[in-house]
Amino acid sequence: MDPVASITWIVLFVLTTVIVTGIVGRIGWSAPVALVVVGGAVSFLPGIPQVVVEPDLILYGILPPLLFAAAIRTSVIDVRARRDSILLLSVGLVAFSVVTVGFATWLLVPAITLAAAFAFAAVVAPTDAIAVTAIAGRLGLPRRVVTILEGESLLNDATALVALNASIAAIVSVVTPLEIAGDFVLAVVVGVAVGLAVGWTVSFVRARLHSPVLDTSLMLVIPFATFLVGQVLHGSGVLAVVIAGLYLGLRAPTVASAEARVAERINWKTIQFILENAVFLFIGLNLSGILEGALRAGPGVWQTVVICVGILVALVVSRFAWVMATTLLYRKGPRRLRERSWAWGNGVAVASAGVRGVVTLAAVFLLPPETPSREYLQFLAFVVVVASLVGGLALPTIIRWLRLPKPNDAQELAERRLLMAEARRAGIRRLDEEATPADEPRVIEQLRADAGFLGETLDLYGADASIPQLQSKLRLRRSMLEAERSAVLDARREGRYQEPAIIAALQAIDAEETALRAQNPTSEG
Predict the structure, then answer these.
(1) Mapping DSSP to helix (H, G, I), strand (E, B) and coil, where does residue 111 land?
(2) How far is CA 215 from each of CA 68, 181, 248, 263, 266, rounded to the nearest angstrom?
(3) What's the whole-model pTM score?
(4) What distance in Å separates the CA atoms of residue 136 and residue 200, rounded to the nearest whole number?
(5) Does pLDDT of 266 surpass 50?
(6) Is 6 exposed, middle or buried, given 0-12, 13-18 or 19+ CB atoms closer than 10 A?
(7) What is the C-alpha to C-alpha distance for residues 466 and 475, in angstroms, rounded to an integer?
């Protein structure tokens, strides 16, 4: 494909992703399902070429930024608080699924080796919390369940891809179980070491960068560089990226400027949105080719239906069996576990959120050409993802049926504002320490008034945990900012000021509006 055609495809991909996601978001549909349907419909139109992507492009170009974007926005504190539950799901459940689904695939699919079956099982093992969120919408899940699902999704990607690499090694060469185990341990140890080393080094450098542009430029290449280093050292590049992202996300408040952190959040959220949804669209565009390959290499229509149902049942049963066994262990096990137990309803919610997504779609193309029935396995992975996405549409009904306790929004809001007041009191103390006779008294008084405003409003909560005085200030100040922006734009149209003055004024207004939104993010749509 020539450069112009490649750029055209990229532009169409992004535009279609944005348009479809925006439309289905307004009507409450699932964006991943809609993108797969749109791509699948387009793939059958005459004259539409099949979009072919090299496996290395997926491995080195798509997975690292996807995993890094998720990791850097994940709370290490939350993961640490639920580390035992998350590890049981992200490592234990993945290993259990690889074994059970691998043997089921080996028994169901004719002429497939056990190594290829385990590789396929590793592909379909990881869940996608982003897909769950997109399908379920604002379910009001308990915070503990959300933390477990997000932590599981992040770490099980790394576990599954490490297992996939081990299975691929068994496909392309003759290896012993001892060698596979040794390679697995080496991949984990080296991956963690590389991730920590990159995280520490980059944090050290970021603390000495005073330009947000340089900081952003550095961060954009970190996932790719980390992945490459991990792979070159025979470790897990995937695990290295995840560890580096978690470390850098934790250290960002102490080593990066506020401007750099704001840019970082927006950049990685955008990258994650585009890549994840583009992969769903991409797999839909490959539907006609995947079906053609499945019909050519498959055992027949009815046997294929039986195989698909068997694999889906194996996935669902293995997840429910592991999660409910884990719930039982926490409720009936040693005292240390019982103190951290969760309700049966929470276990059912976690077990029901087994939606597969972007990592499965990307990883299935990593199967080497030597894999027996490779095209057929790609088709089966596609069926697993689509079936789980459709099945995930029932998740809101399941959550309502379980009647799980809603998260205490009022308490969380109160804690956030109390913490901000505590921080502002620390700011006033620092103001008293740093102020000198040379400082303008009016400046000191204004700073003290601004800092004291939110502290005084803490006793003025409404019945819904709102602060009427604060809400009034935010509403009126936003209205003032709109008028100020309109006045600046009118002055630009009339040509009464030079452009540098116009840009500086608009930037100052934007900065204050951003700060106002940070004070009350719940008001954003």
Answers:
(1) coil
(2) 16, 39, 12, 9, 14
(3) 0.80
(4) 37
(5) yes
(6) exposed
(7) 13
